[in-house]
Every structure is written in structure tokens, then in C-alpha cells.
Design brief:
The protein is an alpha/beta fold and 209 residues long. The protein has one domain: 3-Layer(aba) Sandwich (Glycerol-3-phosphate (1)-acyltransferase). 33% of the residues lie in helices and 20% in strands. It has six helices and nine strands, in the order H-E-E-H-E-H-E-H-E-H-E-E-H-E-E. The strands form two sheets. It has a seven-stranded mixed beta sheet, sandwiched between helices. Strands 8-9 form a two-stranded antiparallel sheet. Strand 8 and strand 9 form a beta hairpin. The chain is globular.
């Protein structure tokens, strides 16, 4: 059934990717038990690096994650790889609305998607840019509002030392729409502080926090 934990393709990909992501990229994650194994899920993360999507997808395993990507990335070399890894193309002309509609269709089908609610890669000294309203529109769509879970996430580091934290899911139906973006932002920044104060060791705990 759509939306359940990793299918065969995702499990096989994880096995082959494990040495690269765990030992070369140095990915360590905490809180993956907070990512529901079924039903529509939005993983909402900060965004600093082009490596963020694959690292977050790896860290969220066994939940299978889907991504939205610019059609220009789907060239003859990279295209088959990212399509295999659940990337869904959108035309540049479609803009944010095209990405949101693609994401909505995936969520209606009970899948998990990754969204960067800052709307762009953060190249500033600020830990988090103001969250854009796209994720608000998506989370409160009547088609999914009663079922969707929004999982705050934080990623930091570089190749050789990536750390990822997933927080407790947020149910939009339990949060006032006008308070949602502030609430999500606070939860994401809390995860940042946990990573700064400790060490994500990949066992589901933060040492030294």
C-alpha cells in the first residue's frame, strides 16, 4: 500500500548506499522514530547544501521519501538516478505552485515528501530564514489536513560529518493555522540546539545534550 515503509526498490537502494552515506558522508541521525511509517508525511527541514535531499532521505529510512526537483536536473546522466530515487520533475515555468500541486498529489496518495520551507538554500549567517507560506497552504489543504503529519527536521555539517535530527510530528488539525509557521520554526530551531549541544550518534539518542 502506498505510504508504508520502504518498498523493495528503496530497501535495495539503502543497502547499496549505506557504506557511502554512513562511512564516507558520515551521516548520523537521531529521532527517526518520529517519522511515521505510513500515511501522508511532510518532512520540513532547513536547507544549506545540495547534499541535503539525499542525506535526509537516507536518514529517514525505513520511510520512503519523495522529492520535488527542477526538470533541468533530469538530464540523460543524472535523470535516471534521481528518478529512481523518487525525484519528481517540475517545469521552471510552473514555479512554486507547480511544486506544491505535485507535492499535494503525493500526499493525497499517502506518501512522505521532503520540503524546505525556507523556499531556497540559506546562504546567510542566520540559522533559519523566515518560513514561506507554501508549506502552510499544503498542510492545511482540506484533502489531507486531518491525516497529514509534519515532521520538523534539522541538518548540519558537511561531507564526512552530517548530522540530522527529526522532531515529534505536528498535526495541523491540532494547531491554529495562524500559528503554524511560528510553531514549526520554533520546533526546527529546538532541534538545532539539540544537535549543537550534543552528538547525533545514529542510535536514537543525543550524547552530551
Amino acid at each position: 500500500m502506498a505510504g508504508k515503509e520502504a518498498g523493495l526498490k528503496w530497501r535495495v537502494a539503502y543497502v547499496f548506499a549505506y557504506p557511502l552515506f554512513r562511512w564516507v558522508f558520515g551521516v548520523r541521525e537521531v529521532g527517526k522514530e518520529n517519522v511515521p511509517l505510513e500515511g501522508p508525511v511532510i518532512i520540513a527541514s532547513n536547507h544549506r547544501s545540495a547534499w541535503d535531499p539525499p542525506v535526509l532521505g537516507f536518514a529517514a529510512y525505513p520511510r520512503e521519501v519523495h522529492f520535488i526537483a527542477k526538470r533541468e536536473l533530469f538530464n540523460p546522466v543524472l535523470g535516471p538516478i534521481i528518478r529512481f530515487m523518487n525525484a519528481h520533475p517540475i517545469d521552471r515555468s510552473a514555479g512554486a505552485r507547480g511544486a506544491l500541486l505535485t507535492a499535494l498529489n503525493l500526499l493525497k496518495d499517502g506518501r512522505a515528501i521532503l520540503i524546505f520551507p525556507e523556499g531556497t538554500r540559506n546562504r546567510t549567517d542566520r540559522p533559519l530564514l523566515p518560513l514561506r507560506r507554501g508549506i502552510l497552504w499544503l498542510s492545511y489543504r482540506p484533502e489531507i489536513k486531518e491525516r497529514v503529519k509534519v515532521v520538523p527536521a534539522w541538518i548540519c555539517g558537511r561531507v564526512g560529518d552530517f548530522k540530522v535530527a527529526f522532531g515529534r510530528p505536528i498535526s495541523p488539525k491540532e494547531v491554529e493555522e495562524g500559528e503554524f509557521l511560528e510553531h514549526l520554526s520554533e520546533r526546527m530551531l529546538e532541534l538545532r540546539e539539540k544537535i549543537k549541544g550534543g552528538r547525533a550518534d545514529g542510535t536514537g539518542s543525543l550524547k552530551g545534550s
